[in-house]
Structure formats: C-alpha cells, structure tokens
Design a protein that fits this description.
3 domains; homodimer; 6-stranded parallel beta sheet; 434 Repressor (Amino-terminal Domain); 15% strand; DNA-binding; 4-stranded parallel beta sheet
DNA sequence: CGGGAGGATGGTAGCGATACCACGACGGGG
DNA sequence: CCCCGTCGTGGTATCGCTACCATCCTCCCG
C-alpha cells in the first residue's frame, strides 16, 4: 500500500508536464513530445491541437528530464579570447540568455590565437561534451579553429565576421553598409577633410568597413583624398595612427576609426594637442563597445546589437544540433541583424562651417 | 525479447554511473549517493571506501538525473545592472564557469537601482525558479534588493561589498588593505603631494578605500595634506575631480582614483593640460577593469580577481543551497580573496626626485 | 537484561522525457 | 484483390539519481 496522494495531479511541484499537455490535447505523451521536438511524423491537425494545449497550459519541457532521457548533453561551447575585450560582456549576456531559454548549457573556453592553443581549446571543448560552438570575433576568422571544430564534427556559428565563408553559419551586421552610413553622416555634417583608421588586416570586417568608407568618398567625387592609416583595433595602434593623422597639414576635421578603442585613442591624442572634441575635431568609432559610452565626450559610433547577435547565434546552433538529427545536414544559414548609428557628443559640424 | 546488449555494462555512452561505483565499492547506490552528497549518515570507513572508488573510476554525477530526481531545479540568479560595466564580463566568466562545474544553471536578470525595478527583477528571478542570487556591486549595497530576496527565501551572496552586513554571505577583497598598499607604493616612489578621488558615497567600498588611503597618510605624518575630491565612479565625475585637483597650486604629483574609470579620466584631463603620464603626473586606479589595460599608458591599479570572486560566490551559493537542506541554517560566510597591485606604466617617481 | 532510540544501510518507486518498437490505416503496384 | 511500404500514433522501458521507507544493528538507560 503506497501513499496515493501527490501523484493524483501532475508533478509534486505543480509544474506542467508533458502528460498534462497530452491529457489536455487528448493525445499520447509521445505525440506531444514529437510536436515539441518538431518531428515530421505528426499530422497537421494534431500538431495544431497540441500546440494550442502547450500554449494554453504554458508548458515548457523539463530540461533535466529531456537531457537524461536523450542522453544528449546539449552543451554549447563558447570560445573566447578577446583582444578588444569590452565586447565579451554583452556577448555573454546574450548568449547565456538564449542558452537558458533553450535549456542548454553554455561552456566557456578561453583560447589564444596560436594553432597549438586553438587545438587544445577545441579538445577541451569536445571532452567537455560540447556539440556546437559559438565563435565571436576575432576567433571566427581563424581557419585553424574552424578546421579543428569541424574535424570534431561540431556545429559552428561565426559571429560578426566581415565576410564569412559560405559554408559556416553566421550572424553579423552589414559592416559595409554601416561604414557607408557613418561616412555619409560625416559628409552631411559638412566635413570634407576626412581621416580613416583601418582595422586589423586579419579580420575581414576591417576591409568591409574600409570598403564602405571609401566607396562613399569615391561617389562623392569632389572631396580631397582622405588620409588613411593602418590600425590594429587596439588603443595603442589608434594612438599611433592619430598622431600621424593629426600631424598632417591641413589636418582632417573628422576621423573615422574602425573601432571604438582606436577612436578613444584618437580623442586622447586630440586632447593632448589641445584640440577639443567635437569643436575642433570630430571623432567617430565603430562597435559601440563599453568604452564608447564610458569616456567623455561620448563617442558617436555604430551600435552592434551584440547581445542579440550572440543570442541568435545560440538559437542557430540549437536549431542546427536538434534539427540535424531529423532533417538533412544543416543548411547554410547567414543571419544579418540591424545596426544603428548612435550619435553622441563626439561628432559635430566642422569649425568654420555655416550653420 | 529485448536486446540484452548495452545494459550489460553501465550506461550506453560508457559513462560511469552511480551503480558502477556502488558495485566497485561493494555498497548500495544509495550509500554512494549519500557520500557524494555529504549526508552525515555514513560511517567513516564506508565513506572512505566509496570516495576511493569514486576517484578510481573517475565518477562524476549526472547532473540531469540528479536535478530530475531531486526536483530541485537549482538555478542561481545573477542580478546585474552595472554602471561601471567593464566589470561584468569577467564576472560572468567566473560565475558561469563555477555554475558549469556544479551543474547549476545561471539565470541573468538585469536590474536598475530603483525600488520598483528591484522588486520586479526579484520577482522575475523567483518565477524563473532561482533559489539563490549573486549580487555583484553595486547591487549588493541595495537594502531593497536584499530585503526582497530574503523575503523570497533566497540565499544571497554579496560580492565586493566594502563592509557587508554580517548576516550576508560575502566574497570580497580587503579594500582597506589594498588602498593602504597602493598609497604606500606612491610614497615609496617619492610622491609627497597626493591627490585622492573618492568613490561613490553609496558604496561602502568607497569608504574603505578612502580610509586605507588616509590612514597611511596620517601614519606618515610629515606630508602636506592631500587634496581630496568627491567622485562617483564614473569617467565624467573623474574628469571634474581631476580638473579641480590639477588646477590647485601646487598641483599634486600623484593622483589616486578610487576606480579605473575615474583614473582614466584623470589621464585624459592630464593630457589635455599637456602633462605627460607618468613623467609629469602619476595616476593610479583601483579594480583593474578592462579600461586599465586598454588605454595607453596602462594604468597601475589594484587587481581584483573578479572571475575568481564570482566563482567563489557561486560556490558559496551552491553549498548554502545544498547544505541548507541537511544541516542547520547557513552559517554566515565571509570570504576574503587576495588582491594584487599591478604596476603598469602610469606610475613613476616624481619629476624632481633623486634616483 | 529488555526495550527503545537512533545510526547505518538497502530496496523500491518514481522524477519527466525520449528511444524504440508495435500497430492500425491508408494507397499503389503486381 | 492482396501484399507491402509508409505515415501517424500509442505503449513500454529505461536514463541516472534521489526520496522515502524498511530494516538491521548497536548502544544506552531504567
């Protein structure tokens, strides 16, 4: 004689289980499971009924049970190793949020850019049970890492690569268009003598940004040739580039740096030369990383919805991993998300310009 | 007739289960479970045997199964909402790592500092199934949030509160001692005219740092009174403070800002006045946040092992939640971790000093 | 010296979900 | 017209672990 109480109504803790849904929809638990997991072997009518029951009851699958039964750990790896590190924070927030939503575990792994370190990181990820990996920049550009991961049969999503290889899943903004918009913004303010600091040549996004900038300049036609310096996405490299740009005669009235760290460096160098930003010099960046809003005056820059991108990357990964079982091999998926030009205090009309 | 294969030897995927350990140790699975979960009802001899078996076999419990069976979702909340935001990234890394180690889920929740927003955030956390919460600064100072959380019967760990209430669990560095060390460092370099920028008065850590600084000054005795300005941990407030400090006659040769954002602002202002750091002015910060190593010259500062602290916070939380069941109420636990003075390029001997 | 308290251990029944098979209902070719 | 392949669905057996009891044994006290 067992105590019969407590099993009369669903789970002990009152949460909705798959059985509740099944009963409500008048089907078997199995069918509910199939619907929830997107199996093809369910009639449309049944599927609708079940989905409605799910919605009505507010059912959400118990992750622990699912993992236990399916023995698929469903851990997603997140390889990081970030030179321009302010990125990571927001990225993690977005990724973690999506992971929680899907009930998968996120496993972090730090990774230097050397081949040996890459291999080690990937191995740790594999032995940690990860079945997919998110690659924020600049790791997404590393062919070594990608090759290693693919050899381990992992799904990969690259985030914010400028021109990702077609066979990889990818989430990014349109760097080219964003750079164009920013450049047009500078021209619209009345700037004519422009300076540009390129990003790290290893990253394809750098070239996209540069292409965007120069395409607008060329279209405008009548402008003096912009001064261009090579940077490497670091504050230090921005400082060097700024020194050269500002030493020129005549100096540019506006400088477009390929990321925020370098833009911050331009501001620092400008101040050292007793140039007020934005009164004497307009400075704009790219990324809207933390430093952009930390410093004063705040940096006009291109906002990347980093958290959202990270979230979508995890979404993509989960879909690929789950779908990869039922359907064919993962179809190549590229996702473009919207950027936004954020105008803060670092950009204004050039000094002599008419209002 | 079922296929008998695959259950002959432990799990399908070859992983070690509790039964393997039990068989190896010659006890029942229940006993193994007790040992692993630290129940008191196990004899020492048995415990040793089991532990040895665990080690020998490399057993690690299946988290999914554990969560399923015990119906304890074991989600930990992480409330954030960070003005000095560069903190968050490293914090998340540490917290997530520890969470993965313990097999608990981390649930993020953003939270403004208003009472209404706090209440909402806590409610979301509760309904999300969190049983404990980590509070990074500055949230750990909010009595509203703490009260709300305690009302929801959650375990709380405050991180990096300067002087935490005794009844809260807490992980922090010794702000007082760290500030003392930094101040002594400045004196050892030969600085005598010092400036200090206080942190936000709402945060107890601010006062600890200030007390540390001034205690060393007082002990030294012979120095001119330091110039002190009130800051609020933001770049902007650091700029204002720096302006006042550097306008003084004679100006200080070294400025100690209560965090890195403000120190970065001091450097910016110094450069604007054509003062070279560290040649003309020494600037030091506190926290070793990202900006400290992003800018150039790099900031000499106090390194807080943020990731480690976040990890310990999660450890503490897990222990409290798990232990809270078998043992008495959680004993108050304060954990002090080691800080480190990181000397970068922003501090040097004062200009006129003998070498 | 017996009975009861309580420590140490084992047995059994799930937790909530999926894997795998079985089964009925179609539909088209031989 | 029957057989067989495929679709849609339900049943059953776990997945690895812990809750909850039942049990045995020891030791203390009256």
């Amino acid at each position: 004689m067992n105590k019969p109480a407590r099993k009369t109504r669903s789970g002990a803790r009152g949460s909705i289980t798959i059985k509740d849904v099944a009963r409500y929809a008048g089907v078997s638990p199995m069918t509910v499971s199939r619907v929830v997991n997107g199996s093809q072997y369910v009639s449309d009518a049944t599927r609708q009924t079940v989905l409605q029951a799910v919605r009505r009851l507010g059912y959400s699958p118990n992750i622990a049970a699912r993992n236990l039964a399916s023995a698929r750990g469903e851990r997603m790896g997140l390889l990081y190793g970030n030179p321009s590190a302010s990125y990571l924070s927001e990225f993690l927030v977005g990724a973690l949020d999506a992971a929680t939503r899907h009930g998968v575990q996120l496993v972090l792994e730090k990774c230097e850019l050397t081949p040996a370190a890459s291999r080690r990181a990937v191995r740790r990820l594999v032995s940690g049970g990860a079945v997919g990996a998110v690659l924020p920049p600049p790791l997404c550009e590393s062919t070594v890492i990608c090759a290693e991961l693919q050899a381990a049969r992992m799904q990969i999503v690259a985030v914010a690569a400028g021109r990702p290889p077609a066979e990889l899943m990818c989430v990014r903004i349109d760097d080219f268009a964003a750079a164009r918009e920013m450049t047009r913004y500078l021209l619209a303010l009345g700037h004519e003598r422009l300076g540009f600091i390129k990003g790290h040549p290893n990253q394809t996004a750098s070239e996209e940004r540069w292409r965007g900038f120069s395409s607008v300049i060329q279209e405008a036609g009548h402008l003096p040739a912009p001064r261009v310096e090579q940077g490497f996405f670091t504050f230090r490299s921005g400082l060097d580039a700024a020194r050269k740009l500002l030493a020129a005669e005549p100096a540019p009235t506006a400088i477009f740096a390929s990321n925020d760290d370098m833009a911050a460096a331009v501001m620092a160098e400008a101040h050292r030369r007793a140039l007020e930003v934005p009164h004497d010099l307009t400075v704009v960046g790219f990324d809207d990383s933390l430093i952009a809003s930390t410093i004063w005056p705040g940096l006009t820059t291109i906002h990347q919805p980093i958290a959202q991108m990270a979230g979508e990357a995890v979404d993509l990964l989960v879909t690929a991993v789950r779908g990869g079982k039922g359907h064919g091999p993962a179809e190549s998926a590229h996702r473009l998300v919207a950027y936004e030009l954020v105008a803060r205090e670092s950009a204004a009309r050039p000094k002599g310009a008419a209002v």
